[in-house]
Structure prediction request, 758 residues.
Amino acid sequence: MTLDQIKPGNGGVIVSVGGEGALRRRLLDMGLTPKTTVWVRKVAPMGDPLELSLRGYLLSIRKEDAAKIEIEVNADGTGVVGTGGKSE
Amino acid sequence: MEQVLLALAGNQNSGKTTLFNVLTGSNQHVGNFPGVTVEKKVGQVKAIPQASLVDLPGIYSLSPYTSEEVVTRDFILQEHPQVIINIVDATNIERNLYLTLQLMELQVPMVVALNMMDEVIASGNSIRIKELSEQLGIPMVPISAARKQGINELIREVKRTIKNPPAPKKPDFCKGEVHRALHAIAHIIEDHAQAAHYPLRFAATKLVENDEPMRKALHLHDDDLHIIEDIVASMEHALETDREAALADMRYSYIEEICRNNVCKVQETITQQRSEKIDRWLTHRYLGIPIFIMIMLLIFYLTFTVLGGTLQIWMEAGIDALVEQFSRLLNQIGVSEWLHALLIDGVCTGVGSVLSFLPIIVILFFFLSLLEDSGYMARVAFVMDQFLRKIGLSGRSFVPMLIGFGCSVPAIMATRTLSSDRDRKMTILLTPFMSCSAKLPIYGMITAAFFPRHGAWILISVYLLGILTAILSGLLLKHTVFQGDSVPFVMELPAYRIPAARSVILHMWEKAKDFLHRAFTVIFVASILIWFLQSFDWHLNYLNNSSQSILASLGSALAQLFAPLGFTDWRAATALVSGISAKESVVSTLSVLVGGNDAQLSLALQTIFTPLSAYAFLAFTVLYMPCIAAFAATKRELGTWKEALLTIGYQTLAAYMVGMLIYQIGILFV
Prediction:
């Protein structure tokens, strides 16, 4: 499953980050590295971009870029919004 | 102690500007880094008289992709600051330390200022600073830049580091495969790194990361490059990931490890909890956009009518009174008529009319820095991104464009906050298509003469025309001049914070200074030039009536050019030329040239234009090059005359094409 398919309020653990060049590097630098837990908190009013929560802060990326991030969904497939994305 | 150079580095939204202002007071100099339009602020540190502090751009990493990142890297490697002050947002420590680890690789003595510690403690969380500092091998000082807490301790630590710089030691945060690869590569490139004056560890890391500038800078042999690629390939194979992910992962794993024992986060900070509540409204699925529009309308209302408008009227009155006194004085000492006219009609009127914009600019930038410093600007980009993507821009460009409806000058100045060079240039080009408030008198004049019963519709159509031209231009430029990748839209949504009064005031002052500087340089010269063209004929005779002036003959020469737009009267062309000084001049010039009051003006206009050509004229005035003050801002923000001239050239060409299309298509139906 990719990150853009996750419904707001749910989250998962990053398996791999695709894409290339500046975009991919930026995603990695901002902490979207494999094994990190990430939550989708919101979708912008016009359906794009997404608001993510990871490593205790909020990040916004576009859906087309989120589609390059492979996610493993939590065992129950859901998460609670707002508890942050600490990777413990 | 001799002169000392310090650098301030940190993430965006980490409170860097606030700390810079606290450390330097108002003693700042703003310029650009060489070769790029990245702002460079330098200030004298109040508590260390010999030390100047350079405010490096807010960045998240040292990757070589944005000009901000490159500038930071080059500055530290080439200017050799004695100490880097690295500001770290303690409420968001994991991501902030990522840059810290990269800065450590540059092997410059460093002090970490752990900002917003007050928020961490107030929410019941804690950080074992001493242990963290020992594990990283860098002194760490808890501060609150906004409350000016811990500043003395920070200064003391910086002074100590200047005096006794720690011996450079190898940063030790890599493990396993990455560690092996780094050390193997370090062996191979040791001489090259030394010759090129790069810290060895930094050079090795960059090669593993496949960093293009570093590979070029080291001048490695092909053999060495092959071996390095082999080492990297086997590392990738062993880790089952690629080189870039491997290094990012290594840094974050190390950060997680040292934070696990030393950072205790029981709950989100109060600021973060509050932000979440605010965002329930401000980025709400249905209410987000209406609320944004309401906020902007309120700012417009306050800026252009209540506060700025009133101040502008006072300012105009004040300037008029001063000019009158000055004029009387000139008469008393008996200067010649033309000199009197030069000083009063040329310089004072020209500079004065531009100066009267000052209150609006100051007030608009007051609101803008509130939006920026509070964290709302990032939400605007979030909410509006989808709108502007199609024309190749991101949500961040929305605010400058919106301000363009008030005045292009602050709008162009506001593009400074855009992080991408490409976005900035494109926004500067498109913003003047948003019809500014100074053009309203022109619309009033034309509708009164030709469309008295449809004024509102004409007005709306003119605004839409500007927006449509901007959209089409955006699409065109995206596929031609501004091709290539835009900077990825990966944007932090910082917690909402109450802006520091000091930063807001300094920001207003900076913009005011910038504007005043222009008013007395570019605009000063331009005013004299336009006055000269208006007051003299080709034989340099001083005229009382501008109908024989050089400007008028230029107008006559240009008049035929406008034939495809349906008007060939020299007075229309002259008015358009004089509109370059200020858009209101289109109206005043036309009324001077046709002579007479409002009613006569309407009648006279009907001899110059048909309703259709009047509309083409209107379309041209909406779109053609902005006034001289906006041009000066364009030149300032773009950096070069060439780009600035190309920009206004494009705008004028677009205006001409649109005007022509309207007239030529219209004439088929009329």
